[in-house]
Amino acid sequence: MKARKGCWTCTARRVQCDGGLPTCQKCSRAGRECQGYEMRLSWPRDDDKRRAITMDLPPVVMRAKPGTNLFFINTTWRDVELHTRISPQMKPLPEAETSSDLWRQPQLRASHMDLVHHFYNSAYLSLVTFGVNPSQLRDILIRMAMADDTVTRLAVFYALLAFSSLRLNGLHQQAIQFKISALHSLSASAKKGPLSLAEAAQHVAASMLLGAFEILIPSESSGEWLWYIWGALNIVEATRLKYQSHESDIGHLVDWLYYHDLLSRFSIHHWRHKSLTLVAPYMNYPGPQGLQYSSLARHRPASPAPNPTYVILNLLSEIYDRLLDSWDPRSRNEEYDNRLKALEDRIGSLPIMPVSTSFGADDAVAVEVYQMATRIYFVRASQSSWKLSTKIDSLIDNVFAGPLPAHACGHFFPVFILACEARTDEQRTTILNLIDRTERSTQIRSIEGLRHTIQSIWVQQDLHADSDLLVNYLGMMSTVISSSNAPPSFV
């Protein structure tokens, strides 16, 4: 702070001060009290409209409900501000025991139907599927949301509105309120006792919609999408949903769940924060040798299969189950090498044929890119190095010369795997153009998080380009993925 050049007395008189110490000479000669040069605190006068900041605050009266147990909450002013904004718009849910008509279909407002129509017309395309026709999945979810009057039906209804609202207007109070209402409904259904088959399916549908809600906002998410997937898996394991026909509505719903579960295993495998791997849901699954994951290989026949997408996903599931770390002594015997060779041959021999995915016109390309990415990831992970292999040199060249330059791809896993192989400026430009084409589509969620992860991989590759050390493939991938605030989704 600059020292004052004039005393307060001269300043008030608006005359030039000589700055004498301890008092100025001008005040001494005039017989005035010199008020010195020290800093002063000042407040605006009541009539000073330029300096005063005033506002009218409504009276706030805090009252505790009778019989309420008071407790302290460790929170911040931002949380309190958000609570203040949301509270006036929240409507309390009645207790489940108060009336037999409690969970009757709520009064449908015009805004609710607008969101249902938005979900039907466009929002559903952000529900990433593979092997399940997205319009068919859309119709299944809407039927469940408009079905009979049950608690689980309300959970699907509110989760669908939350997802549609988020897709239409972004993260705001309306979307959050619908999400909270869906969670309340799921909580109420869990207290009612055993679920019927239809109620269990609705519970899974609501959980998947809430998981998709979290995936749409990766920058705001804390990995909650994983909990919704695991919750849905628990419902499937606790009921007979997995034994339903694959061509039924429940069968398509379970297929959608298993696809997200499979890709979540990729995220978990490369996420180095141990707290995430101690989650209980997988520990209760029945299976040989304490199997910890749901197996698509048990859900779908490996070969021949009615749809090539299921074969790809089954093979990817087997990769997780069979690959061993390079330090494991079992990875250095002939039997292990023969099993890997047989698995690689099955991946490479998969026929390419068009199927339904979540990206309409690029269906066949999506299958082809997924097949190539699965094969590349298998070879790289089994070698545990970035050293180029003659087995996939030509495959990588064919990828960048073939389907990538002219198409979009709404599936993050194959784009990420192929981006890890982009070493030249031309190849990286191809990947960035692919991301731009995908991002411009109104059918897909934000891809900014994937772009950031890919660019981090490229930076690490460039930093190690002149190193004599052989960089571990899985190690670099895990380090970059683990640098995120929460486990990213690669569906």
Condensed summary:
With about 500 residues, this protein is mostly helical. About 50% of the residues lie in helices and about 0% in strands.
Distance between the termini: 56 Å
DSSP helical segment count? 19
Q: Judging from the principal axes of the Cα atoms, what is the shape?
A: extended
The description of the largest β-sheet is: none
Give the overall pLDDT as a whole number.
75
Q: Supply Rg.
A: 31 Å
* DSSP, total strands: 0
Helix amount: 40-55%
Low-pLDDT windows of residues: 89-105, 276-306, 354-361, 384-388
Class by alpha and beta content: mainly alpha
Strand content: under 5%
> Secondary-structure element sequence?
HHHHHHHHHHHHHHHHHHH
Polypeptide structure, described:
- The chain has 491 residues and is an all-alpha fold.
- The chain has 19 helices and no strands.
- Helix 5 (134-145) packs across helix 6 (151-169).
- The radius of gyration is 31 Å and the shape is extended.
- The two termini are 56 Å apart.
Key terms:
single chain; 491 residues; mainly alpha; 52% helix
Draw up the topology in text.
Blueprint: H1 8-13, H2 25-29, H3 77-86, H4 110-121, H5 134-145, H6 151-169, H7 173-190, H8 197-216, H9 224-238, H10 249-269, H11 296-299, H12 308-322, H13 334-348, H14 363-383, H15 390-401, H16 412-419, H17 425-440, H18 448-463, H19 473-482
Helix pairs in contact: 4-6, 5-6, 6-7, 6-8, 8-9, 8-10, 9-10, 10-12, 12-13, 12-14, 13-14, 14-15, 14-16, 18-19
